[in-house]
Queue: 4 jobs
Job 1
Amino acid sequence: MGLIPNELHADEPWVEKYAGELFYNIVTKADFDPHDYKYGSFIYYLEALPYFPIMSMKYISESILNPNTTGSFRDFVISMKILDQRNMTIFWMQRAQIALIGGLSVLVIYQIVKKLFHKHAALLAAFTLAVLPLHVRESHYIVPDLAITFFISLSILFMVNLFQTGKLKWYILSGFMIGFSSTLKYFPLALLAYPFALLLVKKKDWYWIRNSMIGIVSILPGAFAGVPYLFLNPQTNIPVFQKGVETALNWYRTPFTEYASAIVLFIRSKGQEPLPDLSIFIPPRFTRYYLTLLFYRGFGVFPSIAALMGIFSLLILHHKKILFIMIIPIFSFLYFSLYIPALYERQADTLLPFLALLVGVFLWSLWRFMASRPIPYKRTIFLIILILVFYYPFTQSFASSWACGKPHIFQESAIWISRNIPSKSVVAFKGYMPFPQGGYELIPLLPNDIFSIEEVRSTGAPFAFINIYDTLIGYTNEFISFFIKPTDLYQNYYPVLALHEYRSRANLLQELSRPAMCNQPQLVYYQLPPALPNGKNPIIYSLFDSNSDMNYWHLQEYSKKSKADILYSAEEGSTSKGSLQFTWSSINYTLPRIVSDKIRVTPGAAYTAAAQIKSDTSLKETERDGFLRIDFYENENANTVLPGPVTALSPRIYGDFEWKQVAVTAKAPANALFMIVSLQVNGSKPEGTFYFDDILLLQSNELPPLQI
């Protein structure tokens, strides 16, 4: 469900291209070499298969309709120009093959758990994998990641048979599948489990040693089967392979790959080239990206808790098998989280069968425990636990697959714009968002350039359309390392703060989105709020003619403290000497902001905050920084560290280091009690100084009617 149309995965065109060329070369030149080794060879051979039945049926049909003009099948394939355009039937079949592999992975995990534990645990584990949102989503794309998961799982199944039966054929098949699975992305994960499988063999004698060595030797024919033409035509293909590896290392370079390369150089130079110090293996950082991905979206909160409980179940009840079962997921998780610089959701795919196994083992162990004790309503309790564990994965996978079967959100976006936005309108937009052809004046937005409501207003655009996914992915990477993002740092971070301003002040015309695991972006369409006249009645002013004005302003620190401070500058000033100076020498995610005391407001009244701001260095347009902010709060005990229900931001300054005036006007909501005025700096440079002077807060003359 949802294979077509779905979105196009970024890596699918590459596989499509070489699979199509492989079919073309087989038919026209009898050339079975895929001529690319980015993803091994299996994925290209697999995805070339649908071309044969579809093109054969087309050829037969053409031969019946035009028998005199139809030449050979080879000539027909050449004339069809299959490489110039996508055949949607073939594309659907290519995706269906990956979905089939995803389904076969479920059967393999069932067999593994059944052989290791019990058929009831196997059913629970298989069902878990079948509805796992990340597994279901990856089953929709013609990329090799799910195939890697399948063949690693198959390797584990063969190893289970190896230590349970001791038969030679399972040693051979285990080694063969280890070699084959390693060629899909050149990551020999299955090899990690092989030593532990050997240790689980009950009878360790001469035949055990012999069979173990035969299994290791069998890795080579498995690798040959995975990339045959890398062995058959090394002179041509090894340079292609090396080029692909060099490109991949831009994203996947780790101390392990560097040390492996150093060993090769060490051997080639006969010891002349020294090996790196082992200190390179000290992890540079730990990213919680994959932990967060699985816990919240790819797996779910309750399934994740069940998997953790499954580890305890293994430790207590099946400790002899735990290293064999857990070595691959533990190594994968630590390797991805500690070393690999690139962050891709699909890297977590290899963890999924093992997580499903853990859930199955936990639920089975839990039921055995409950069944052996006089617990009232045990069936009802267990049913509730099952619902808690499986509700999110099942509903998320179903909803995402169903939504992916609908027209793509970008297609829906273009239709909505053409029907609802007048032609020749000026539209500011952020992130990829297709527009109907012609008729619109488009202004690109960037969080470090033009982005907030007042900045967009200065361009003359009445509309702001934002791709939320692009904005957050592109400009909040600093927060990937958090398992739970600190709300004070995250919500006050400028791109997130500006999005909150749109939600609180602008008119939302439309929002288009899909369920989280459909992997399509959230698009929002705003109309800017009407411009309000500046207030004229001053109620607060800080001219900083003396140090006493500093008493009204305070530094609002966050949970992660930056090296920043405020002080009175007697030298710098806008109209006269004296200003508030904000200096920072390091940024810990979000710089602290300077806040006023609480200011009582009249609901419905408009308030203008204005100030003179100066930077100690010149700022490019893409380094805009320094702005005023108004937050209205509706509760006396509201947490003023976080943005209020309504937030308004002034434009940021840029250009030469001269005094520049900024202002923002916003209306207090109906339930507002007080407001906070903030002086804020993003930190567009690693260190610097901003000066604030002549800060005024003005109230509009037109007040709402007095409510009696």
Note: Residues 93-401 form one domain.
Job 2
Amino acid sequence: MKEFKVILNILLLLYCSCRYKVEAQDIALSKPYSVSPSPNYSLSAKDVNNTILTDGVNSSGNPFWVSDKTVGWQNTQRIVIDIDLKQVSIIDNIAFNTARGNNSDVHFPAHIFAFGSINKLDYSYFGDAISDTSNSGSNYEVKKFTLPAVKQKAQYVKLIIIPKGYYVFCDEIEIFKGSQIGKSSPDIIKPDDVNGYVNSLLSITRYRSDLKRNNYALNAGISENLKQIKADRLHSYQEQYKKELIVDKVSPWTNLLTPYKPINSNDYQYRLYTPVNGTSYGAFVVTNLSNATRTINCVINNTALSVNRLQLYTVPFVMSGKESQEVADPLLVYNTPVVLVPGESKMFLFTVLGKSAGKTTATIKISSETFVTNLQVDNTVWSNNSLNKDSINAVNWAYLNNPLISDRSEEAINDLLKHGINTMVIPPTALPLIGSSDFKSYESYISKLKSFKKLFLFVNFNNKNNFKGTSFMSAEWQGSFIKWYNGILASSKLYGFSQSQIYLYPYDEIGAKDVDDFYSFLAWIKSNYPAIHTFATIDKINSIKKIVPLLSIAQVINSKDVIDEINGSAHNDVWIYDTKPNAESLSPYTYYRLISWKAFLYNMDGVGFWNYADINNPSVNKLNLNSFDGVNNTNYSVIYRGSGPGFIASRRWEAFSEGIEDFKLLKLYAEKSGIGKAKLMAESVINSPDDITRADSIRNQILSSLSILK
């Protein structure tokens, strides 16, 4: 009997062990998969054959993203991974191994949505592997996110990863076999509808989060149905505020996303200080908390047209490529009433243009079928002609042959000048090859640019085809180059540009492999032709000490390590720039406006960003507002196209222009009160980036002080 019990226990152990192995079997191991877009992070594996994510090997890299066992994506809106399990199986768990390191601006993904299909014709939604609260924090960590208890059949598994920030890394995806199908019946989704389904999931997540923040609770919990969630949310705010319509005064630079949470501030007064020929901004949000559609009418009453002019805009939401958020960005001139459905919010922005010195009070009347209120705009216009001086340079690589603006170049030029751009980059396509004597394209291009202060000629030495058969820096090449340069000068002078306004731009964000070549060129120029001006962008510290002292202008990336290095090195003029994608989602305040404050603080002479009109999408790159979708584009632009002439500005474009004005005011204040006091003001703004009212507060102090010191 005793022996029988021993045998029975052994059999039970073997059974449990076998059962565990079956349940823990990774059925994705060595299975083929496809990825869109392809991994593009340079320090991780290229994964050309699509094998790394299912090879069963975890990365030992530290950090995780510097490894040949890790794949990585940079500046990608969505990542789609399709795995073929080769046979229909019951799926239990799906695991995605990733890492974060917030000091390197690397975060866990925002979402990992999983779908499955047995035939690629119909998909079922399995769930989100990132649904817990551990997707936060700041420490370096490698973590396996697991979607448990899927309990559904599939041969084809589709993962859609939504980045949180600019990077996503993964070294292994595991799919564990199950033994039991669940009782639930998931939604059936056609392949073409999967992306739309993901958008709905993201909206549900955001509205549910808003309900939770508002301490809303039902006995049955919060619904998973978007329509019901919106109804519950509306009811929550109706109970809280007991109002049909709420008007909130907000900063014009706040990063406004959906769903907007009304605050019912009851502050309807604006106190603005505006320089003559300068602009001030204000904004408000109207939220409909009634159960009926409401029509919002806005009327400006401004009797002091000789002192200032007010213009009102609506700011619609657009779909951003960053976490597929809806963000309020484009500025549409208000000319017809706005219709709001129950629960909907709309942002309005107004500009005040200073015309002549004086104090004024204007009102903006806001009304609907059952509501009326007035906003009061008190404005002091200060006069000082010094504000018009070019104390700061600005560039944003506005190539006039860009598809977004190529048929509206005159409107683009006027828009650039209006917003403070005084420097233009001439693209390689508008320049003759070195050794060529045909300058017609160049002359045609610069004939439109007579109002600009500087021209940067992007000759692009990276492209050796530009040398027209000669060897770089050979005696023959040098002779051809100087002949070419003299031809450039002659053509430039035909259109009013002197040699001092022309800058050669041989390399953009120079890489380590080109540093020696660039140094040779710059040393030769400086030694033999010191009147030739040069320019380059610098995004890494390894080229600063060798290259920057030889440049007439070095424009450095907005990065602490690069700025620290440049401040400790010999240099001539230094400008600052930034290049982040998903531009529609970037902060108008911290990214676009404060770059000029940083330039002032660090004694820089110019600012810039990539790009005025760069939008990459599968069609015509026109960035039409009515069809804009940041998820399927890589957008850097600050403008949109509408159905009419000209362009639609964004809040970001206005914030950048305001920053240029801020810089000029800081310069004037430094002349009157001392550079030390002015820098303390700039430092207080830079060190408090989350306080989006700080720059306006300091600006008003400066204007008030200058009017007294005048």
Note: The mean pLDDT is 89.
Job 3
Amino acid sequence: MIPLVRALGTITAALLSLQTLAPGLAVLGGDAHPAASEQSRAFVTGVTAASGSNHTGKTTGPASFVEDAGPAVTLRVAPETPLVTSADAPVSFTVRVTNEGERATDPQTLTLEMETSRLTAATLETPFGENSSASVSTKSLARTRIPAIGPEETHEAKLTVNAATLNPGIVTVGPVPADGAYRVRAMLGARDSAAGEAADSSTAGDAAATRGGEATSGDAAAGSDAAGGSDAASASGNKAASTDAAAGSDAATASDITSIVWQTGAAAGTPVASSATTLDDGTVAHINPVQLAVIVPITLPSEITQLPTAAELGDITASGGPLDRLLSAAEQTHATLAIDPRLIVAIRGHGENAPDSATELLQRLESTTLPSFLLQFNDADLSTQAALGYTIPLQPLGFTELTSSGVFASAPPSDAELVSWTETAGKIAWPAAGALTPETVKLAGNAGHTKIISDSSAVIAADGPRGTLTVDDAPFEVLVANSVIAEAAAKLSSASTTLDAQSGAAELATLLAVAGGTAVGGSASSLITLDRATLANVSNPEAVLQTLTSLDWAQFVTTDQLLPGTVSLADGGAVTSGDGAAGDGEGGSTRDAEETDWRSDRLTQLQEVFAKTPEINTRAGVLEQPELLNAAWQLEQLQLLNAGAAVSESAHEEALAHTNDWLQQMLHGIKLVSADRTQLIGTSSQIPLQIKNSMPYRATVKIHLALGSSALLPAQTDFETVSLQPSGTTTVLVPVQSRIASGTANIVIDITDTSGEIPITTKTLTILITSFVESVSIIVVSAAAVLFIGFGIVRSARRKKLLGAHAQGGGDAGGSDGAGGSADDSQGSDQNSGSTDDS
């Protein structure tokens, strides 16, 4: 009985404990990780559709939801091609799962699902499976098994879905599906036995895992079980999740969003006028034409800070190279070329030394039918110059250094001939992204520009991307570039992996499909600018243009053919950041504040560097051609003002470091490199002075010797004109006489300009004086020591040679006489020893 009572007491206590812990268990048993559909945001937001108006755009990277004490997992997904143009063609998606944690992941199930409602400008910002008014249905496309992934390893797989699987989920109008963009989500969840069996049934092969890299798996073909059919939304409007997709899966540990563009209905790019093709959301059922004007920058790689050499021109302009391919792609899109004048000047300035490929490229640019205009030299940013108080844009001072090394049939071309260009697109100014102020517009006007390109984050545009802006009664035509589309294009052009390129292409195609689908009864119109900061540095600069030409609803026009509208400066003309816009929330405000800080610091740093101009002018006074250094300094300032450095902190820091190194070389490039202590033997000799000139220019200096004592008497104390070879060391011999037998003396050497007014460098040499008698004695003793040591070496070598010869002779005798030979050898050895001693 007692044990039974004790047991009942224990059970009662346990029940009381459970009741006490019940609230906590309820919390722990809840949804620890919000549904991935509520966490995953669209990969693009705030698209500017027909008008090119100012919108806010954000990009949400791969979502990562980390389990307690679990590995950190990131997920990327993208279609191999963004367009679905056939109802029978398979659609493949590349998926990459990366374990960034310190321990291996568990096997998990990867689910691919799609929204069944087309994307519009309004729904781009909403979470997956929802829009601003109601939830939308989704359907499962495929499911596969992701094996365990080791720490810092990557697993890549390909999932292939038949277009027929996609088709039932597409909104239809009559017998045809509604063309447009549809979001697709990849979701990674924990794998249990039920999900594992389903996943295994739809997986053709397992992917390989790699450490710190990529691996391509076998294809995971989605069968009918994986697709699971289409799930309609419930009557209450709640999201209807696919039963197959949800079966056996826990909350998502990672997810990512991409999209596809369905285009298998009526003829692509054909405007649809029938009211039957207008959907409930007011958009059309097909993708209407989108007018696209494209600005293609023709610039130089960032490592070329001033003018390219002939060898660099050969690399840049090589047939089949990046620049050659970019120009060919630009011709397919009727693009407008924005050319850095450095390319034209360098090809002309090298004359016959310019490579054939460079000359052919210049001829191609001169004869092209594409409209073109010149950027500022080295693409120097006008907005930065306006902020620094410039009233006239900075320009090169001349190209004498370039043409002096060129080869020409007659006289070298003048500076005006080198920069001459027919700007068929008009006089267009292109400040850095996100920075347009009245001062910038005025500066552009002072330079003779009548048009100006601005991205949509810096202006407010309505009705069309081309309008007129009046500043101080001067009208300017403003071309408004769509900043959201430009950002997507920049991602594509700078993609470092195939998956990154696929993701960028999908984003770009989606934005343009949404723009075309929104244009009811007319055409959308957008200006796209390619990223001038990185385009010359990537291996595939034509990627964006190739993607655009694959979209047959894209109609390429010139900037003059863009739809007209109205334009005004944003924020009353204040400088805005490239990404800054309303609606960023607390995180956006922090980012904007940080960008404002570094941009403000940049202006301060530029002012400090440019304040060294008087020092450069002074140093130029020692050169035989002072204008060469002044011109080089102007080019160095222009590279600091480059538009790429105006929008990228790292690019600015790199440019600033280059300029500081250049200033160090120019301002401190003439040095006396002779040893601090020199020995003088005898009563007269010559002291060598070695002067190093690190500048690439010939300099003429004056050398003055100041004696610290009367122990030395130089033949002359002033060398009025000493010519220093460029980038080399020049030796000057100073004849001197000694007035003492031994001791030390100091000479102070001052190097100045030829007038003696501009100091360059000063150094004190210590001279060790040794008399002639002492020198001769040292030489005699040294020679005697050498002879004595040499005699000993010769004597030892000779003795060893004789001993070896006699030993050889004794050995031969021993071979004939047997044992008796040994005695003879011994005797012979004694005799030889005696002979050696006698000698």
Note: The mean pLDDT is 76.
Job 4
Amino acid sequence: MGQMRFQLLDIDYVPFHNEPVLRLFGRGEDGKSVCCFVFGFEPYFYVGCSDIERTRSELLERFGGYIRRIEDVERYEPVGYQTKKQKMLKVYTHLPSDVAKLREELTTIPSIHGIYESDILFRYRFMLDAGLGGMEWVEVVEVEEGGEGVPDELLEGIQCDRVVVASAIRRYEQHMDAPLRYLAFDIECLPIGGKMPQPNEAPIIMVSLAFEPAHEGYDSLVLVARPLENAGNGVLVFDNEEQMLREFVSIVVDYDPDVIMGYNSNGFDFPYLLDRLRHLRKKKGNEQLLLTLGRDRSKEVSYRRFGYMPSVNVVGRIVADGLSLVRRDFSLKQYTLSNVAHELLDTEKLELPFSEMESVWQDDARLPELIAYSRRDAELVMRLVLGLHLLDRYFAIARLSGTLAQDVLDRGQTVMVENLLIRAFLEHERVVYPKPRGGDVDERLEKELQGAEVLDPVKGLHENVLVLDYRSLYPTIIMAYNICYSTLLTEQQAEQLEHITTPNGAKFVSPSVFRGIVPKILEHILEERMRTRRQMEGTQTPPEQYRALDARQKALKVLLNSFYGYYGHAMARLYVPEMAAAITSYGRENILNTRRIVEEEIARVWADGDVDVDVDVSLDEASGGRKFELKVVYGDTDSVFVKVIPEDGGDVSLEVLERIGRTIANIVSERLPDPMELRLDAIAKRALFIAKKRYALWVFRRRGEEFEDSIVVRGMETVRRDWCELTSKVVNHVLELVLKEGDVRGAVQLVRKVVQQLKNIDPVHDEHLFEDLILTRRYTKHPDKYQNRQPHITVVEKLRSRGLEKYSIGDRVPFVITAGSGLMVDRAEDPEYVREHHIPLDTEYYINKQILPPVMRILELFVGKGALTGMLSSVQHEMRSDARQSTLSDFM
């Protein structure tokens, strides 16, 4: 018997002799993979009832075959302030599946008024009770090593360096990762006759793999499903597809990766592999052709889809789809591997026309091109995920929330919040509800929660605007006003207890009586984030440790800001909409009070001393100096924009504006309950407000001794992906001219030049301009499910009619609008097809629907529509005049 430690990657269970046996998979400090068996942990749930003894007897009488034993316990109900626990039954079953069977039956027993925690997954039930979390370190007291003491049928298929049985298991504090192994892969399928490959027809002809660390001296390998002489280093050739796929499985198992990665691998590679092997099994009558890539070779890779979000499970390993990771972290117009590599890695994907792939495959002389093409794809995935550290934040969230890494990658924030809540409720002996189903969810969705306060903007261009931001507004409101499931009061309770009444009328017990569970969770998260950021500021922090700390503080921020949304989420176990409404009611009140304080109580400030040096700002007019009036020009949820207007009309330095901003923030913060705080976020030398949630700022932020400037845009065409890239570029350039230089005429000249370029575009020769005209939309459901025709669906259908299946549900589909008659939606076309066939574009569509509308919204604020038309028409004296046109493009 001895001790060992490993980092927890995955947990599952297998039934054995009518009881569950848990299997914990991970990698140890010594770099060896581990499978740890845990026996004896029993599934259970809670029952609330009016008659304990009668209910116990009825349960045992009717369901004794499922129930192992029943205990009497006392627990608090899920919602409401309580000082006395309720008597409940803790029902233990033989198998986790027994809990699900009983859950429905128990609702028919009249004495039962509540069934709690009946749908917590068994592996999470164990993790919660044992205090373990995903990606955390586990310390194990071993009973036996090498599988001794484990029945042979449980060991069958296990592929790990070490197999142990634990007599005791506990969490071990350690923040660094084990020496994890990463594998990236990509498959190439034969496009027979130029058609999109189908698993029951088109073979898999290549599999490329990249390794970190290297595998037997190779950083990458390419497997080829046909003979080839002098294939080259790192290339393995086979007689046929079946041999190649067997070797692929063998290499994965032998390398024993902790993380398997691809690019759109969940949407294409894994499903295609599974379907292709299923076809080959049926065709060849060989049931051994299985995709057994996990640490249990008796279980094949499993695949399922939720809407357009596919999920892949490989026992004992983590599956990460690079496409999904990039989509979450980066806002790009196109998410092809080619575009992503160019934008994020500043490198190029090797290109091989889809139409040539079949002929290249059959040509020995050109086959190395396809091999290099395939190898580069796997290498790019490795560079994307590891080079950009795309997994760091998700691994940190797993540790902090107690969630398995695979669930963090595949599921939303709800599972993370619930894990934190259930852990805290467990510590306070409070049960939780099961998740809602069916009609309950529909009923919740019908309820509309009132949102945050958004002040009407003072439209136009403003100078010297302070951007004041409430630090973590909703989490700090929860903490400040003790808003929690465990503090919510009934009207009768409120009459007897010291309490807080929120603006929407909800009542919560005062923190002096009882500090809420959720406020305490958030306080801990906030303190941890501040502590982590202080650690990052240390000048001696090694780069690897700094990266781990940065991922941790970002993960803490995600968790901190997730709780408000959970309160009103229709799928939440703990759904209390009046609590979500209480939070937003304070948010609305907060914005209005801030405006009142700034404009009525402060109203103006004086800065003494030379405006070019560091000065003090006070509210005492007797101090002399320059006088400044304050006016709130916009407010949105957690931000307030305050214009500083000098009485003498002169310029105002950034240093003076900074001091004024900090003084205003301090005055407002002093009137707020802890830990709420208003801070100076940035200084906008110029700010352009167009409408609610639509604005652009030229901001300055202090970085050490200096100020750094940038353009910040919200809600405009520069950041919205339903506009083409040219729109974003033109609007960004116009904003720079207007905000930085105040040059409206220069902005008009820029637009004039772009319009002329569009009118003369050649899709073949003007390659960069053509690329900027490509639009994209996400393909979210089957074409038949769309109520109205959509341009990207038109493209999908056109490609399908040509025998091509280029896009799957979940992809962003690129398209351009071509010239011709008929509806715009019918003239949408695949960009590659347009280039190949020299099809002209509808330049009037791009000018009048893409470029001019957002530009007009900006420039009209300065000169009005009529005057703007005149300015545009006078930019150049040689104009194309066409009496038939009435659009602005005719003046350009």
Note: The first helix runs from residue 52 to 63.
